[in-house]
């Protein structure tokens, strides 16, 4: 039986779950059912829109697989309480809609006749659920970025047509029509297919013109095809990437938090989309879409203080442009821009307090790594204070070393770097 994303996500919301959600949010079951009916295709439309952007399919695929490996699908109602999936919720829903998330939540609530907070809560619940369902399918079928685009292209019409007629989702997304999303997605899918076909056609033409018959040339041609095919595959795959840290928001720190840093490291640059993050008062920050500034401000614009101390302790945001000199806690000059941005965010949200944590992978000396991670976390706190941050908002830093690392020590460096990071947690 073929996989249908819309039906799979809708099927997650059983009558019992709708009843529990309604009770938890203080809404009627009918209102919640109507809201979910509008929110599911809206979230999937967000996936379609993101997939049509540069690197979007790779980004979605990575997050989807991560979501499917979590406990999200087994505890959907738990997401409403800000439990184990909280950081993923913020990253996923905010990543899909950015600064339009609040407006779409209001649109859903107005359409279904439920509270605005309920509309936003449902979107934040449905986004990770949809990605987890997609990630489960991707894992079982070895789906890559090109395959994801093909899947979305084949199902875009049913998803877009499922958006209720009375829901002005296109307007909330700043579009003239939802068909704009479908057209852009189709172009992205055909672009990958066309590039692959062009490469293969060029090889076939060269073979025909040269009329190569010897076994030596045949082996050479086959090798060439293999190299090009591998190259296309790698290009498609290139893109993204316990205590109170079980749900750290995943982002990559460019430098390593450990003493035995390799002498040479090959870094594959990933294009980032420039983005203006707006703070209260109209101040704007130069940042990247989905970066720490974007995700942190999205979080601070929610009613985060109602989450409680336990939930806040489980929510961490990884810096993505804080670097250190090799084997030391000296912050590089290029990191100052993000230091200044975080300082501005502190000033814009004076009731929030930040705790900074340092983490390493499982390689190297454990005691040395823990010491260095603490030193680097302290260095970030000191840098924010030096940039004008209110010392009263900066709680103690902590170095966790490899305590929360999940990738085996014998894994590749590319896999292990997700465990090497500096992160910040918001506290009340």
Q: Approximately how much helix is present in the residues?
A: 40-55%
Number of helical segments with 4 or more residues: 16
Poorly predicted spans: 82-90, 193-218, 225-243, 246-270
Rounded to the nearest angstrom, the radius of gyration is 23 Å
Strand content: 5-15%
Helix/strand structural class: alpha/beta
How would you write the strand order of the largest sheet?
1-4-7-5-6
Overall mean pLDDT: 78
Principal-axis shape: globular
Order of helices and strands: HHHHHHHHHHHEEEHHEHEHEHE
Number of strands: 7
Largest sheet: 5 strands, mixed
How far is the first residue's CA from the last residue's CA? Answer: 49 Å
Write the layout of secondary structure elements.
Layout lengths: L4 H8 L2 H11 L3 H23 L4 H13 L17 H12 L3 H12 L3 H26 L3 H17 L7 H4 L6 H32 L4 H23 L10 E2 L24 E5 L5 E5 L3 H9 L8 H5 L2 E3 L17 H13 L4 E7 L6 H21 L11 E2 L13 H4 L4 E7 L1
Helix pairs in contact: 1-3, 1-7, 2-3, 3-6, 3-7, 3-8, 3-10, 4-7, 5-7, 5-12, 6-7, 8-10, 10-11, 14-15
